[in-house]
Specification:
This protein has 477 residues and is an alpha/beta fold. Helix content is 47%, strand content 15%. The strands form 3 sheets. The protein has a 7-stranded mixed sheet, sandwiched between helices. A 3-stranded mixed sheet has the order 5-8-9. The chain has a two-stranded antiparallel sheet with strand order 11-12. The longest helix has 20 residues.
Length: 477
Amino acid sequence: MTTSAFVSTDAIRTMFSVAISDMYKCEVPQYRALIQLIADVNVEVLARNPELEKQLGLADELDHLDIVRHGAIRIGTAEELSIIRRLFAVMGMAPVGYYDLSVAGVPVHSTAFRPIKDAALRRNPFRVFTSLLRLDLIEDIELRREATAILARRNILTQRCRELLGVFETKGGLDEARAREFVSEAIETFRWRSEAAVSAAVYYKLHEAHPLIADVICFMGPHINHLTLCTLNIDAAQLAMTASNMNPKAIVEGPPRRDRAILLRQTSFKALQEPIAFKGANNSREGGVHAARFGEVEQRGLALTARGRALYDRLLAAARASAPLARDGSNAAAYAEELRCNFEGFPGDYATLRAEKLGFFRYSPTAKGLSHAGSPSLPRTIERLLQAGYVQIEPIIYEDFLPVSAAGIFQSNLGDEAPQNFAERSNREAFEEALGAAVVDELGLYAEAEARSLAACSTTLGLGAELEQQGARRAIT
């Protein structure tokens, strides 16, 4: 089989994201309703802002508004994490970033499997936030042993999926028929199965330790925990969810609303109670309920540099310290106001964000710059080129996640009774050992994208490598 006969990993990722969304719509009808709600919000935003519609059209983003943006799964063992990495590699997705959620009392650490090349992100930015249970954080030794034994008995991939994974790794790709079969087999890993793998007694013992522990251990595989849609106005989406009785979480996680959006804002409807059947005596089943799955909405903005993230983290921590959000969300308005006030200290325009090295940007020649390409009169520094209108900037969009926000989403969907007594013990080394690979540094990806744009801009304007070298110096400082 020649490589020309292989389906691209981007195409397989798109097949998978469509299939997983179709499956989840059937499993969680309120997610289907959320899709329509968000579509209505986006239509209204575009109707009020023709310039935004024009910008999105020029960027080929209009056709992508209604695609699912990311999903989330929780897995139980190092072996499961390793094989999930191999599974997502077939879809052109690499592990990016390390997230320690023990900072908020959630006993997992995580990464995001996502495309990393600009072209792949434009084709389909679908990603999966993947969390590995921290069994080492379960203090009850007997409970930890029991959890380990339960997880050892399960196999999260179908036999045919394993065979097709081997074909991909041996031959370097999959043809059309095998690619479609692979997607069909792969989604079985993430399907909801209401039959629990344990008895009610075991489930409630694990649930008492932490609801997330029960969700990971008590079922036959890493069912989709949630899927996420893209909105052009997350505050309007939050209001619409409330008006539609979708029971959204109390606050929008992340930074406050800004004219120039930064990083990531997220909200969700709370996890739904779903019937499950526990193992009973003599192969019988005992009825019960479980809540873990929900629908989420996101709005993304500018990717921040390490300096920008440090400022963001500092302002967020100050807001959370001044107005700690109540577990039931009863002081959400006070928290939102404190957040807004604190973030007045974060620059609000792109020029300042760039000048203060707080965010990552793409550079491109303007029409004026193109008309002077190769001219000896062109300025030789990026600052003067920007000032004179020969070069323009656009924000590089943040493609990753925020640990405090992720933990906030997790906690709001685990119930107010979820314990928070897991001490922060970051262990990236153990996570990467389980993964079987190093996670990719997300800040490095944004810096590389910025540098590539400077190099291309420099070449187009006939400036050789001058701008690229200035970009390298900018990154260092």
